[in-house]
């Protein structure tokens, strides 16, 4: 994005603060394009960077921080839930998985094998949620994590905690549903067997009655 904002060959103005070079020899400056736009702030406004201070250089801190807050509020760039590599998107994807499982639990399958599979998916979701929660709390390195404020982290861990609680509840619920279905199938099979035996006994009784009637008829004919 920076290459698009100020392509090679562009004219820019550099504005310095107290320190012009950092410990790695990199230039420290505010960068303005030919329209006077502060490129540092523009990157932050698009959610592609985070405000930081090196030494005492805070000349543009307020402007960049304000731009970053705008990106956070609008869900842009690294705050977007629609860009797969962002932390909010990873959290939303995990939360969505749990929401999908909850929908399936509300209309349970009549197949216990599918319910068992859903229970395993709930366990897998718990693993993903736990990993994300650990990463969010650990302040991992990288710009995708650096853009997160303490409030962002608190909100995301809150979402993860709720989703984890739901996933654990769903794991138990799917196990109970599978058990209920198997019990219902067992009872239905037992009833079907009783019905079969009853039909066979009724058929034998009917055949025996018919045989007795035939014998009576034969005896009556012989007497006549």
Describe this protein's structure.
This protein is mostly helical. The protein is 67% helix and 3% strand. It contains seven helices and two strands; from the N terminus they run αββαααααα. It has a two-stranded antiparallel sheet with strand order 1-2. Helix 2 packs parallel to helix 3, helix 4 (87-106) packs antiparallel against helix 5 and helix 5 packs antiparallel against helix 7 (150-223). The longest helix has 74 residues, at 150-223. The mean pLDDT is 93.
Topology:
Layout: H1 2-5, E1 13-15, E2 30-32, H2 39-45, H3 61-74, H4 87-106, H5 112-138, H6 143-146, H7 150-223
From the helix content, strand content and strand pairing, which structural class follows? mainly alpha
**Helicity range:** 55-70%
Strand content: under 5%
**Estimated radius of gyration:** 36 Å
Structure keywords:
2 strands; two-stranded antiparallel ribbon; mainly alpha; 224 residues
């Amino acid at each position: 994005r920076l290459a698009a904002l100020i392509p090679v060959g562009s004219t820019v103005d550099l504005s310095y603060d107290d320190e012009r070079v950092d410990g790695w020899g990199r230039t420290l400056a505010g960068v303005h394009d030919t329209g006077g736009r502060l490129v540092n702030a523009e990157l932050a406004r698009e959610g592609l960077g985070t405000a930081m201070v090196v030494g005492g250089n805070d000349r543009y801190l307020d402007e960049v921080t304000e731009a970053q807050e705008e990106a956070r509020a609008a869900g842009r760039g690294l705050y977007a839930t629609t860009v797969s590599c962002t932390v909010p998107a990873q959290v939303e994807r995990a939360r969505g998985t749990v929401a999908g499982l909850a929908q399936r639990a509300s209309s349970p399958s009549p197949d216990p094998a599918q319910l068992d599979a859903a229970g395993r998916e709930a366990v897998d979701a718990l693993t993903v949620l736990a990993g994300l929660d650990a990463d969010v709390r650990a302040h991992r390195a990288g710009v995708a994590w650096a853009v997160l404020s303490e409030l962002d982290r608190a909100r995301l861990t809150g979402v993860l905690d709720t989703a984890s609680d739901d996933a654990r509840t769903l794991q138990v619920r799917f196990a109970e549903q599978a058990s209920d279905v198997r019990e219902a199938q067992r009872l239905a099979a037992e009833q079907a067997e009783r019905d079969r035996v009853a039909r066979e006994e009724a058929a034998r009784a009917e055949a025996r009655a018919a045989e007795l009637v035939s014998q009576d008829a034969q005896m009556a004919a012989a007497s006549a």
